[in-house]
């Protein structure tokens, strides 16, 4: 729509920026004088053009005190367009002091010139830019971004506003937290209904809900659920690296949204495929519910915020941690092949020190000890029992291998006492068995039996099982 790229860039201070406290410096000598933009008589020094779209442009500016801001200027072609942008100004002013919504510093509507100017706080990057720069999003990052998006949209839904154009470009990172921006086509829901009405489709097609393009005889009716669909598309993009209809042409997307039999696919391969089945199931549950064609079946924002997928903290008793550590170590011993001794199976006793160390480590992390700054932790006491279990297994395996090798050596025999017509030396089979047993023991990793006494040299003859072709 006409407000698209410009509105999406309305607070995007993406290029290297001067420090917020740096005052505007007047050019010296013959340098070009910096352009100054005025809003309600206040001067703003223009630094650079951040973006444009349709009839709007967004500039990076400095105010008189040197604060870095973003200024959106719209030149309207007619009164109806001007009224539309005035609606954006009105909504943003009504949403002042909501920290999850981009904050308006000042705004001016010039009816004579058909121009609107909006001064807003600046940000670091929009979500679209962030996703392109971060191709390997992890679970923690996805959860954090998803929660912040839900909380931001919940603010405007609580004010009975349908945004109608949610997409990554319309979420801005300000001091590391997402804020919703661009209210160019947003609309407030009347008190006597739950929907907004439009005469025609408007928005960004890749993120529009089916009901936003399916026009009936009485026009389009959109509710809060249409924003839920858009949020689901954004989550899909974060997980799969692209939107579900990115491979389609514009007309194909339009037809798909109007096709009641079209269903979005959810491939098994995505950024969280290495996580537990429970986590993958929670993710799929959110995506399938948000992307229901029937808006009545989509979840509400409170339901999404309470979903287990976002459960990143919980109050846990220390005893529960100890029990889980005991179960975990029991499973590990089973996997590595260590059989517990009588009374050891499921016992907590060997793992008390490890449970204590894990508990203290979790508390340290919870107190703000970040992954980047924390030194590697070795659990010095807690893993001693595990090392002892492994040593016991190794001794057991070595003894078993030695016994098997000796048994194999004792079982060696010959069909007769001659090879190629030559009689074997009297008493030679015993040392042969002993030396072969030593070789078998060495191959099995077991200690070799004692060498035959007397230093007798023995010539070994090896032959093929079928042909008995003899060779040294």
Brief digest:
One of its GO terms (biological process) is chromosome segregation. This protein has 472 residues and is an alpha+beta fold. Helix content is 37%, strand content 16%.
Break the fold down into its secondary structure elements and pairings.
Blueprint: H1 4-8, E1 36-39, E2 42-53, E3 56-62, E4 68-75, H2 79-94, E5 104-110, E6 115-121, E7 125-126, H3 127-133, H4 139-158, E8 161-162, E9 171-174, E10 177-180, E11 187-188, E12 195-198, H5 210-213, E13 220-223, H6 224-240, H7 250-258, H8 277-290, H9 301-305, H10 318-336, H11 352-366, H12 384-411, E14 418-419, E15 422-423, H13 429-443, E16 462-463, E17 470-471
Antiparallel strand pairs: 1-2, 2-3, 3-4, 4-6, 5-6, 7-9, 8-11, 9-10, 12-13, 14-15, 16-17
Question: What does this 3D model show about the protein?
Answer:
ATP binds at residue 72. This is Protein kinase domain-containing protein. It holds the Pfam family Pkinase. Keywords: ATP-binding, Kinase, Nucleotide-binding, Serine/threonine-protein kinase, Transferase. Residues 44-310 form the Protein kinase domain. With 472 residues, the protein is α+β, with helices and mostly antiparallel strands. It folds into three domains: 4-121, Phosphorylase Kinase, domain 1 (2-Layer Sandwich), CATH 3.30.200; 125-310, Transferase(Phosphotransferase) domain 1 (Transferase(Phosphotransferase), domain 1), CATH 1.10.510.10; 318-382, no CATH class. The protein is 37% helix and 16% strand. The protein has 13 helices and 17 strands. The strands form six sheets. Strands 1-2-3-4-6-5 form a six-stranded antiparallel β-sheet. A three-stranded antiparallel β-sheet has the order 7-9-10. A hairpin with a 6-residue loop joins strand 16 and strand 17. Helix 4 packs antiparallel against helix 6 and helix 6 (224-240) packs antiparallel against helix 8 (277-290). The radius of gyration is 36 Å and the shape is elongated. Residues 1-30 and 455-472 have low confidence and may be disordered.
């Amino acid at each position: 729509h006409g407000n698209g790229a410009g509105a999406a860039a309305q607070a995007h201070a993406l290029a290297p920026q001067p420090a917020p406290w740096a005052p505007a410096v007047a050019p010296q000598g013959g340098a070009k004088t910096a352009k100054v933009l005025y809003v309600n008589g206040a001067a703003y020094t223009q630094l650079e053009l951040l973006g444009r779209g349709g009839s709007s442009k967004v500039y990076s500016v400095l105010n008189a005190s040197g604060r870095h801001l973003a200024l959106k200027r719209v030149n309207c072609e007619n009164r109806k367009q001007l009224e539309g942008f005035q609606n954006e100004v009105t909504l943003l002013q009504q949403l002042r002091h909501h920290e999850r919504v981009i904050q308006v510093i000042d705004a001016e509507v010039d009816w004579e010139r058909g121009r609107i100017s909006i001064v807003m706080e600046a940000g670091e990057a929009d979500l679209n830019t962030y996703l392109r720069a971060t191709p390997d999003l992890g679970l923690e990052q996805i959860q954090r971004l998803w929660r912040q998006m839900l909380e931001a949209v919940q603010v405007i839904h609580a004010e009975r506003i349908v945004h109608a154009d949610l997409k990554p470009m319309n979420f801005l990172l300000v001091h590391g937290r997402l804020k919703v921006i661009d209210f160019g086509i947003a609309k407030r829901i009347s008190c006597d209904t739950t929907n907004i009405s439009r005469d025609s489709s408007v928005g960004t097609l890749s993120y529009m809900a089916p009901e936003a393009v399916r026009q009936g005889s009485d026009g389009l009716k959109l509710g809060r659920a249409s924003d839920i669909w858009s949020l689901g598309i954004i989550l899909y993009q974060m997980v799969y690296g692209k939107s579900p209809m990115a491979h389609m042409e514009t007309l194909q997307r339009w037809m798909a949204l109007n096709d009641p039999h079209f269903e979005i696919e959810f491939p098994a391969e995505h950024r969280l495929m290495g996580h537990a089945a429970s986590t993958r199931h929670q993710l799929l549950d959110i995506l399938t519910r948000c992307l229901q064609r029937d808006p009545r079946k989509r979840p509400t924002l409170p339901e999404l915020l309470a979903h287990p997928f976002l459960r990143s903290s919980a109050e846990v008793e220390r005893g529960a941690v100890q029990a889980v550590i005991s179960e975990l170590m029991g499973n590990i011993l089973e996997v590595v092949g260590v059989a517990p001794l009588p009374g050891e199976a499921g016992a907590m006793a060997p793992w008390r020190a490890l449970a204590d160390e894990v508990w203290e480590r979790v508390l340290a992390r919870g107190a703000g000890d970040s992954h980047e700054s924390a030194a590697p932790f070795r659990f010095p006491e807690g893993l001693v029992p595990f090392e002892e279990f492994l040593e016991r297994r190794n001794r057991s395996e070595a003894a078993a291998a030695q016994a098997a090798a000796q048994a194999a050596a004792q079982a060696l025999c010959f069909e007769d006492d001659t090879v190629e017509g030559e009689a074997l030396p009297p008493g030679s089979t015993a040392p042969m068995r002993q030396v072969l047993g030593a070789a078998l023991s060495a191959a099995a990793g077991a200690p070799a039996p004692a060498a035959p006494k007397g230093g007798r040299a023995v010539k070994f003859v090896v032959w093929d099982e079928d042909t008995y072709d003899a060779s040294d």
